[in-house]
Amino acid sequence: ARVINERYPGLASPFRSTPTVEEMQEYEDLLYRRRLDEVRFNIDTNIEEFAEELQKIEAAAKTDFEILARQLNELVIFGTDAWELTLYCLMSPNAPRFIMNGLDYRSCIHEMLAGDISTAKSKVHKIAKMIAPKMLVVDDTTKPTFEGVAPTKSGGEIEEGVVDWANDGVMIVEEFTRTFSKMPLFRRVMDGEPIEIYKKGSSKTIDSNMAMLTACNPTDDFFLEEMNFRKQLPFKEGVLSRFDILIPLTATQLKNELLVDRIDIFGTGPEIPIDFEEVKDRLVTLAKGMKQVKFVILTEEQKTTVRDAFKAHNTADRKHRYIKNRPLVILRDLESLARLVNTITTVNFSKRKVENGMLHADDDDIDKAIQLWENLLVFRIQLYARSSRNLMTVSDEILAYLARMGGSDSWIPVEEALNEFVMVQHKVGRTTFYKEITGLIEEGRIIAT
User: Fold this and answer.
1) What are the BP-aspect GO terms (predicted)?
2) What is the pTM of this model?
């Protein structure tokens, strides 16, 4: 009779010896068939669970931030470009760090909304809280626990603090005050550098990686036209320049007239066009996929395009001197542009070429980053060099120009507007101009023939 082999359970041998090659092959085939049957059984019995997960992945891959921004702009009229920038801010902690001149830089995009009372800042934050893959709301009362709580006895473990909890996510500061700007640790967190913390003989290191979404009011709660808007923000330039996205907001009588009829009071209108829970699920799934990307790669032509966008505005500033006491662009703005390229490309990873964690950027990613970045420069000119409360985006200025030149019943050649904004005013590049025109057409604000 054959007995059980002790060294290879499940195999039989008359002398309890090492099995032959044929016996071993037969045994491995048996294990393989069993494993295959288990996998098939799991799929068959959990088909709904697998299908739901596959649907989430597919939905996340198809997420279009331009469309999502337009939908959000119907709920809170903040500007489509501004909503896009906010969405990329929320996703940026999931993008990889990038290299410039041999040094690595943070991927996180920081955003500040600086504006009057009742300019939708809190509403933008409210939506961000509902859809961000990971977020933490912070105020100046959390300062004692910002870096963690000291151990109760010497040599003990430092407890987790705000930086630990918000890491790899978004820190939302609804009232950004000078308390934050004066904290050296806060600046180091914004720079995305490793932080060493020492308390009662104990130490810990945090690889900080979080985006800031903040808001503040001017010193008198409303921007005053009698003086430069920048002077009404109580922060030094070293702090403000760390915010890649700085959007000024004002409340005006004209905006009130335009917005009041679009507000659905007491919810008597149609259902909300967005399922926030479903949007968050998509963004969470997208964030998981983004973390698989280790590095974003640009071709030499794409690198040249990014440099040329920066140089074009620097050259125009030499001629126009848009801002009296500082350059329009500084090298930190080149970092911000690269950061936008990095995040936008990573968000689109499912539609791009990926090799061993290396993600190849597409020209559309570069163009979108430049478009949003040039909108930020327009905001900067209005914040630093003007004192008019009627703030306008690039698309608003294009609309105003078309109305001024032709009225509502006349047709204006697109080349004429292109020449004005690109060649004469040097406000934006050619690609950004056409993207803004396309956006206005899709929103139904202008008609093209």
Assistant:
1) DNA replication
2) 0.83
